[in-house]
Amino acid sequence: IADEPGEISRGEMCAPLWRYGRDERGEKWEDAVGGSDLHTRRSDYHDCVLEGKVEQQGRWFGFRVGLDDAANPQRFAYWHLGAVSVNREMNLSIGRSEKGVATHSEMVRLGAAVSPSGTPFKIIYHGTSAALYLNGKMIQQQDGLAPRGGFGFTGPPKTIRELRIRPLQKTEFLAALAAAAQQKSELADLGLDDAGGKVSAAKAKGLE
């Protein structure tokens, strides 16, 4: 389709595809066409933080948490940020997918935006709660999730950089203190390094 140089929209006529590469700003995973989901292979993460930088090249950007399966997820929670409503007045859609059936609500939230030049983010997954942060500010917290699950990204064209998963810091706890005291984080079975509360001490792995 659109294989002739003179045909229009050749870049958009392509199967969804993630490409790993480098540019002047470093390593990146890019979904240039859009419509591709990127999920963690593992779906048993818990009491941890996913963080990095994301770039929005389309109308909206989507984050997922609590995925039950990487290849065919039926259960997860999500945040969609950007032009998420028909009238474009709302900039945040939050929702759940249960057994493949999605429910959501839309709202206006200051700071709920991903820029084309890159926005730092983190998702705190603690107990049965998860919170999305952009530029160091909490955007929204979802409760009542599965205690273990994977992470994911979805939406139109987008780019992901500086991605890593690390242990929780004490200042990032979302669950009740009593529950946190009873539920010790099992870092060993997740392959995470205990940084003793120091984010900079966690070992970094290549983005690829």
Description:
- Strand 5 and strand 6 form a beta hairpin.
- The model has no long low-confidence stretch (mean pLDDT 85).
- The radius of gyration is 18 Å and the shape is globular.
- The chain is mainly β and 208 residues long.
- The protein has one helix at residues 177-182, and strands at residues 19-23, 26-31, 38-39, 48-56, 60-67, 76-82, 92-98, 101-107, 119-126, 129-134, 137-142, 150-154, 158-167.
Report the span from N to C terminus: 30 Å
Q: Helix- and strand-based class? A: mainly beta
Principal-axis shape: globular
* Approximate strand percentage: 35-45%
Summed up, what is this model?
By secondary structure, the protein is mainly β.
Descriptive terms for the model:
208 residues, six-stranded antiparallel beta sheet, single chain, seven-stranded antiparallel beta sheet, 1 helix, globular, mainly beta, 3% helix
Question: How is this fold's topology laid out?
Answer:
Layout: E1 19-23, E2 26-31, E3 38-39, E4 48-56, E5 60-67, E6 76-82, E7 92-98, E8 101-107, E9 119-126, E10 129-134, E11 137-142, E12 150-154, E13 158-167, H1 177-182
